[in-house]
Design a protein that fits this description.
The complex is a heterodimer of chains A (222) and B (153).
Chain A: E1 2-6, H1 10-21, E2 25-29, H2 33-43, E3 47-48, H3 55-60, E4 68-71, H4 76-88, E5 94-98, H5 105-110, E6 115-117, H6 119-130, E7 137-142, E8 146-152, E9 174-180, E10 183-185, E11 198-203, H7 208-215
Parallel strand pairs in A: 1-2, 1-4, 2-3, 4-5, 5-6
Antiparallel strand pairs in A: 7-8, 8-11, 9-10, 9-11
Chain B: E1 11-16, H1 21-33, E2 39-47, H2 59-78, E3 84-90, H3 93-103, E4 108-113, E5 115-116, E6 122-123, H4 128-135, E7 139-144
Parallel strand pairs in B: 1-2, 1-4, 2-3, 4-7
Antiparallel strand pairs in B: 5-6
Classes of the chains: A alpha/beta (222), B alpha/beta (153).
């Protein structure tokens, strides 16, 4: 697989190194000549010292035959431009963007970036897992339309004591599993939810308030 | 009993770029290698840009590249010497030369330094020679192209 990585920061550097060591053909684009030379000294002559935001530079780096373009600069706008050019000008099958500001995620999705990696959201998610919150926890985006979420049930949750069949899930939402006593289990129609269960569900983002109400309870102010 | 000559090197990688330096390099190396029967490997690197896969069939360029090696081979034969011609496709000439030297455990690497006649004339040091000097695992000889008007053998 030929992977074009744009952005020679820490993420781009380690990504390139790992891919190269795994036997993939990989090229890294870094616009800062000094940084590009430094990386080339360390990982070899697979660095193109050009700005990946420029179409001609992407062409020089082989975007026309790339299987994947990963835009991992520290700048969301740059990453968006790179992925859009890769997708629409070079017909790259898969584009991956690093999104630093989670508020930019909808825009990236709307403009057709195939996969978003948001370190900020990942850290947020990790923090949320360790503190008792009565919110839906976002685990991962599924395609462009669905989210995988987790709801931790408490004794007050309306779902407790009821079966999956008895729950009136919002349209477009479904429960895929529960984690009970640290063990993931499939959910059948007769599974009775208990306090302490972590319910893993999928649904469209706009259904989240209703899903929250069914599993955890109505949102404050709802 | 006559002393055996102490070999300067036992295996030399000679990088040829198809320029006017090539013949001078081949002559220098072959004549130096002959008394000790040192092994001479002549390489010519065809740089493949990232728009093509590394193993792309670049027949037109391969032909001219092969000609570079053929000329070197003929020059060596003319001096009753021998060399092993090797054609390499790589992303970067400097890295390919160094890799070849490492792979063959060469104890000498020889590269040419072309002279630029335009823009007032100067030695075009470029990227390759500094890279080789910095990264070669062995001794490096840089053979400069004769300057205009220079008397040379």
């Amino acid at each position: 697989m030929f992977v074009l990585v744009v952005g020679g920061g820490k993420v781009g550097y380690y990504l390139t190194r790992e891919l190269s060591e795994s036997g993939h053909e990989v090229v890294l684009m870094e616009k800062d000549r000094g940084r590009a030379d430094q990386i080339a000294d360390e990982i070899g002559s697979i660095v193109v010292a050009k700005d990946g935001c420029e179409g001609s530079a992407l062409a020089d780096a082989g975007a026309n035959r790339a299987d994947v373009v990963a835009a991992v600069t520290g700048d969301d706008e740059d990453n968006l431009v790179i992925c859009q050019m890769a997708k629409h000008h070079f017909a790259v099958p898969k584009t991956i963007a690093r999104v630093n500001n989670p508020k930019n995620e909808p825009l990236f999705k709307h403009l057709g970036v195939d996969e978003l990696i948001s370190p900020t959201r990942m850290i947020l998610g990790s923090i949320e897992q360790d503190i008792p919150v009565h919110e839906l926890l976002h685990l991962a985006p599924l395609s462009h339309e669905f989210e995988l979420v987790e709801a931790q049930l408490t004794a007050e949750s309306p779902a407790v004591g009821r079966t999956l069949l008895q729950l009136e899930l919002p349209a477009g939402c479904s429960v895929v599993a529960i984690v009970r006593d640290e063990v993931a289990q499939a959910v059948g129609p007769d599974t009775i939810f208990r306090a302490g269960d972590k319910v893993i569900a999928t649904g469209r983002p706009e259904c989240e308030p209703a899903l929250h109400g069914t599993l955890i309870g109505a949102l404050p102010g709802a | 009993m006559a002393d055996k000559p102490i070999p300067l090197f036992s295996r030399v990688v000679v990088a040829l770029n198809g320029g006017p330096c090539d013949e001078r390099i081949v002559r220098l190396v072959v004549e130096t290698a002959r008394p000790t029967k040192a092994e001479v490997v002549a390489i010519h690197v065809v740089e493949i840009d990232w728009t093509l896969p590394l193993d792309a069939n670049v027949a037109d360029r391969s032909e001219s590249a092969q000609r570079v090696l053929d000329i070197a081979d003929a020059a060596a034969e003319h001096l009753h010497g021998k060399l092993e011609p090797v054609l390499i496709q790589a992303r970067d000439v400097g890295a390919a030369i160094v890799d070849e030297a490492v792979e063959r455990a060469a104890d000498l690497l020889v590269v040419g330094l072309p002279y630029r006649k335009r823009f007032g004339g100067d030695f075009a040091i470029g990227r390759t020679v500094p890279y080789v000097l910095k990264n070669a695992p062995c001794a490096v000889w840089v053979v400069r192209e004769p300057m205009p008007g220079e008397i040379h053998a």
